[in-house]
């Protein structure tokens, strides 16, 4: 049993590191991996200043995607406890209503609203964000938390690969569309829940739809999480009024892990963080004054900015690659909007893939 677990551990680590030539990279990756476990949180949290979260956000509103479960729901509870208005963006009505009841009960705050949106459906995301912008006068925080790892290559209504559509395109369209609303709100912040898994990926700009070669969902997911880090850096440069951050919650015991990575979930057992531990840095980035004074665009773990590349890693991108990535997202987003404008009720099939 022990030997089997050790072998599983080694096989997952070597799979994540399969392109890595540098032993320094490997050692650093394993160190980062261990810090991301529950023990790592317990050590890191000894340095947290509890006064950082001694705040009230009554009158401020926060949108959280995937707020019905795991890290998103724990974040919603924490923000509601501080008096904030919570906009839950969820795809499943029943799950959302059940979660809302629990958030209201735990926080005593009734300012919790549900919006049913499938983040994989690009046009629906854009329509929702446009409508939200018209309906609400302000939005102080956007938390891009919803994420998925779909193991088969499937396409959404617009022909985009579903992991990319949810983890990258949904985040891009939602954030980009809400930027004008955030800009006119007080102390605006955007936090995106990425993953330390992105450290093993270099931004890939020639195959955003994962059409080439073998479809490895773990690597596609890690690529999407790298894309979120690059996006955050670019948004921070382009929008100085808003504070952008992206973060790694650590390895957390949630349905996403138990269903998408059952082998990893079994292997980690009680080393996984609780959802509250996973949500801690999201909440700190969304609410604390200290966080808003950090440089915009950084990658955080356990309330600290951390490097986005392993030492000596091959994962750095050129300015041209980053520009190409941003242009492709902009073009895809425009295609979704043009299609919606031209045919608001009809089937959505932009010609971009
Ligand atoms: N848990 C970890 O160890 C870990 C590590 C690194 C990063 N993360 C990231 O943390 C974030 C939250 O995940 P979690 O671990 O808390 O898992 P979770 O409990 O399964 O939560 C994921 C949430 O995302 C929602 N979601 C997925 N696809 C969606 C879509 N197309 N439209 C709308 N909502 C969608 C899920 O909705 P349903 O309930 O309807 O499925 C759920 O509410 C994700 O971005 C994940 O990549 C997690």
Molecular structure report:
It comes from Oreochromis niloticus. This is Si:ch211-165b10.3. InterPro entries: NAD(P)-bd_dom_sf, SDR_fam, SDR_member_12. With 353 residues, the protein is of the alpha/beta class. The protein is 49% helix and 10% strand. The protein has one domain (23-342): NAD(P)-binding Rossmann-like Domain (Rossmann fold), CATH 3.40.50. It contains 13 helices and eight strands. α4 (70-81) runs parallel beside α5, α4 (70-81) crosses α11 (275-287) and α7 runs parallel beside α8 (217-238). NADP nicotinamide-adenine-dinucleotide phosphate is lined by residues 65-66, 68-72, 90-92, 95, 118-120, 145-148, 166, 193, 195, 249, 251-252, 254-257.
Q: Summarize this, please?
A:
The chain is of the alpha/beta class.
* CATH-assigned homologous superfamily: NAD(P)-binding Rossmann-like Domain
Bound molecules: NADP nicotinamide-adenine-dinucleotide phosphate
- In CATH, the topology is named Rossmann fold
CATH architectural designation: 3-Layer(aba) Sandwich
- The backbone outline, from C-alpha atoms, is globular
What is the domain tally?
1
Q: How far do the termini sit from each other?
A: 46 Å
Overall pLDDT level: 91
* Strand-residue proportion: 5-15%
CATH class bucket: Alpha Beta
Helix count from the secondary structure assignment:
13
Biggest sheet architecture: 8 strands, mixed
The helix-strand sequence is HHHEHEHEHEHEHEHHHHEEH
Radius of gyration: 19 Å
Which stretches of 5+ consecutive residues score pLDDT under 50?
A: 1-21, 347-353
Give the proportion of residues in helices: 40-55%
């Amino acid at each position: 049993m022990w030997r089997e677990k050790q072998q599983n551990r080694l096989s997952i680590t070597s799979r994540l590191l399969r392109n890595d030539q540098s032993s320094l990279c490997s050692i650093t990756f394993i160190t980062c991996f261990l810090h991301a476990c529950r023990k790592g949180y317990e050590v890191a949290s000894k340095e947290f200043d509890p006064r950082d979260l001694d705040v009230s956000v009554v009158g401020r509103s926060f949108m959280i995607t995937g707020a019905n479960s795991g890290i998103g729901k724990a974040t919603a509870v924490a923000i509601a406890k501080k008096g904030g208005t919570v906009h839950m963006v969820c795809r499943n009505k029943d799950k959302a209503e059940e979660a809302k009841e629990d958030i209201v009960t735990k926080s005593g705050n009734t300012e919790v609203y549900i919006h049913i949106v499938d983040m994989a459906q690009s046009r629906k995301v854009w329509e929702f964000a446009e409508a939200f912008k018209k309906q609400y006068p302000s939005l102080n925080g956007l938390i891009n938390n919803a994420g998925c790892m779909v193991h088969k290559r499937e396409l959404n209504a617009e022909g985009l690969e579903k992991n990319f559509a949810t983890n990258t395109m949904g985040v891009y369209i939602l954030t980009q569309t809400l930027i004008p609303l955030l800009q006119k709100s007080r102390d605006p912040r955007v936090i995106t829940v990425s993953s330390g898994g992105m450290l093993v990926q270099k931004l890939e700009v020639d195959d955003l739809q994962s059409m080439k070669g073998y479809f490895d969902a773990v690597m596609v997911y890690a690529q999407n999480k790298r894309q979120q880090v690059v996006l955050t850096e670019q948004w921070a440069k382009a929008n100085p009024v808003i504070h952008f951050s992206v973060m790694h919650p650590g390895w957390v015991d949630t349905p996403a892990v138990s269903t998408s990575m059952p082998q990893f979930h079994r292997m980690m057992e009680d080393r996984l963080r609780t959802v509250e531990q996973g949500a801690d840095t999201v909440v700190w980035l969304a609410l604390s004054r200290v966080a808003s004074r950090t440089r915009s665009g950084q990658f955080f773990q356990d309330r600290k900015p951390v490097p986005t590349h392993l030492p000596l890693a091959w994962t750095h991108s050129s300015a041209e690659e980053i520009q190409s990535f941003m242009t492709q997202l902009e073009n895809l987003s425009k295609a979704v909007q043009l299609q919606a404008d031209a045919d608001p009720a009809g089937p959505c099939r932009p010609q971009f893939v």
